[in-house]
Amino acid sequence: QVQLVESGGGLVQPGGSLRLSCAASGRIFNFNPMGWYRQAPGKQRDLVARIRTGSTNYADFVKGRFTISRDNAKNTVYLQMNSLKPEDTAVYYCNAFVGGEDYWGQGTQVTVSS
């Protein structure tokens, strides 16, 4: 079993920044891919960014603005979000792919509004 706990969401003005954190525990290893997804009301859940050993990938709509990183010693994944836009408003979910299964956190709300 794997547990994921997100933190760092909140309300921010357009152009602002937030950093999300996802602390992982359980049977997860440094080579297991982890990532961030988001879901806005009435829309599907979309991949935002993913990190695995030696590589990262991003959705086109966040390239150049968001950065995913991982602290293996702390089993924590981060999402640094800069130049936030109102359309970035969504619930952000942490994901880990372990043993052929997807694990999800409970989600953290990000609201970008003036």
Notes on the structure:
With 114 residues, the chain is an all-beta fold. β5 and β6 form a beta hairpin. The chain is globular.
Instruction: Return Rg in Å.
Output: 13 Å
Uncertain residue ranges: none
Question: Helices and strands, in N-to-C order?
Answer: EEEEEEEEEEE
Task: State the separation between the terminal residues, measured CA to CA.
Answer: 40 Å
How many helices? 0
The mean pLDDT is: 96
How would you sum up the global shape? globular
Largest sheet: 7 strands, mixed
Q: What is the helical fraction, as a range of percent?
A: under 10%
**Strand-residue proportion:** over 45%
Number of strands: 11
Structural class: mainly beta
Helix and strand layout, with pairings?
Layout (H helix, E strand, L loop, with lengths): L1 E6 L2 E3 L5 E9 L7 E6 L6 E7 L2 E4 L7 E6 L4 E6 L8 E9 L2 E4 L3 E5 L2
Parallel strand pairs: 2-11
Antiparallel strand pairs: 1-3, 3-8, 4-5, 4-9, 5-6, 7-8, 9-10, 9-11
